[in-house]
Specification:
Distance between the termini: 74 Å
Shape: elongated
Helix content: 55-70%
Structural class: alpha/beta
Number of strands: 7
Radius of gyration: 29 Å
Strand content: 5-15%
Order of helices and strands: HHEEHEHHEHHEHEHEHHHHHHHHHH
Strand order of the largest sheet: 1-7-6-2-5-3-4
Length: about 400
């Protein structure tokens, strides 16, 4: 066991770069899995942090949320996290863990952290001793309170919500927003029951707190989740392949951001509409019917006509990247006499890759940014403005 003298020295500024790196690491990791949100702050100086424990992700949540100036150290079960060299390295380097024996000697392990606490460090403990079930906060062991009283530092209760959804005990990993709420400090003389009540109240309050949301986003999400949403995606893409100037990717960026779990069916519906509309556009052009094509240019049509005459239907593979609308390719394919079966075979892959990529990207970003749902209206304004600017640049480049 490490002596108290090195621990006291380590509690100073020498550990802050490592604490900053760990905080950045876990903040980035949790941002990619749904985000982490903190309410409240630790007091100045050293403190013993006590939190509910329902998932292995609790440690990552606290390391991402707590200030690096406190150089937090996490108490970890010695018989598990320090039972092998690789676990020891992972726990100590990535989680700032220190071993706490669960059968004999555990109190000595805790008291060895007293000098670090007096030097301003935060020691994080899960007084339940193991992960709980069904969101219930179990009874607290007294070790954390003894350590706080011995070091003369306050006990800070913390409630964690969302980790049981992100990484449930004996369950599968899935995306979830994690929220950490830091409560008011308790005196060193607090009892285990008082600490448990404070943590349980914070956990219940955080768990029950609804995410701030946009009414507009909820309405769009309801539409996206219905059959009408699928029909809208199909019809939008169908008409865009004929004449409508606004590409279906704009619709997907709006609706997939509101209902990210509907991204795949919405994108597939838009793809089906786009291909069906392109077949009709091809047949109309083959019959000599010229559909209006706003926001397209003669130079676009000349370029596509040249590509189709030299490369055949496979020329459509350029469409996702050259800025020329899909309807131009479809109409010119009809005027060039491209067979419908060849057109569908060649158009399905590039059109599908673009449509599905847009749906999945915006749906994935929406899952990561769920804590900002209340700004959905602002997002739509920015999306529309960005689309308008981009469209102007493309049309100008092909004029």
């Amino acid at each position: 066991m490490t002596t108290t003298l090195p621990l006291a020295k380590r509690a100073g500024t020498g550990l802050r770069p490592a604490a900053l790196a760990r905080r950045a690491l876990w903040w980035c990791a949790l941002t990619l899995t749904g985000g982490v949100e903190r309410r409240g702050h630790l007091p100045r100086g050293g403190c013993v942090v006590v939190a509910n424990h329902s998932s292995h992700a609790d440690t990552a949540a606290l390391l991402a949320a707590l200030d690096a100036r406190h150089t937090p150290a996490i108490g970890a079960a010695a018989d598990y996290w320090f039972a092998s060299p690789w676990r020891r390295r992972v726990c100590s380097r990535l989680a700032a863990g220190f071993p706490v024996r669960r059968s004999g000697g555990g109190m000595e392990d805790l008291l060895a952290m007293a000098d670090g606490l007096r030097a301003g460090r935060a020691v994080v403990l899960f007084p339940e001793g193991t992960r709980g079930h069904d969101g219930e906060v179990g009874s607290f062991h007294r070790g954390a309170l003894v350590l706080a009283e011995h070091a003369g530092v306050p006990v800070v209760p913390v409630g964690i919500a969302g980790t049981d959804r992100l990484l449930p005990k004996h369950g599968r990993f899935r995306s979830a927003l994690i929220r950490v709420r830091i409560g008011a400090p308790l005196p060193p003389s607090a009892t285990p029951d008082e600490a448990r009540e404070a943590v349980a109240a914070l956990h219940a309050r955080t768990n029950a707190e609804a995410l701030r949301d946009s009414p507009l986003r909820r309405r769009v999400a309801a539409l996206a989740a219905s059959r009408a949403g699928l029909l809208l995606a199909f019809a939008w893409a169908f008409t865009e392949a004929l004449s409508w100037p606004l590409m279906p990717e704009l619709l997907l960026a709006a609706v997939c951001a509101a209902a990210p779990r509907r991204a795949v069916p919405l994108a597939l519906s838009a793809l089906a509409g786009s291909l069906a509309g392109s077949v009709l556009a091809l047949q109309l052009a083959l019959s000599g019917v010229h559909m209006p094509a706003p926001l397209t240019t003669d130079r676009m049509r000349t370029e596509v006509r040249h590509e189709l005459s030299t490369q055949g239907a496979s020329a459509v593979r350029h469409q996702p990247w050259d800025g020329i609308p899909f309807k131009v390719y479809a109409a010119e394919a009809g005027r060039t006499g491209i067979p419908t079966t060849s057109w569908l075979r060649e158009a399905a892959v590039p059109r599908g890759s673009r449509t599905l990529t847009v749906g999945l990207v915006f749906g994935g970003l929406a899952l990561l940014a769920r804590r900002w749902r209340r700004w959905y209206g602002v997002y739509l304004v920015l999306l529309g403005a960005g689309f308008g600017v981009g469209l102007g640049v493309i049309v100008g480049a092909w004029s």
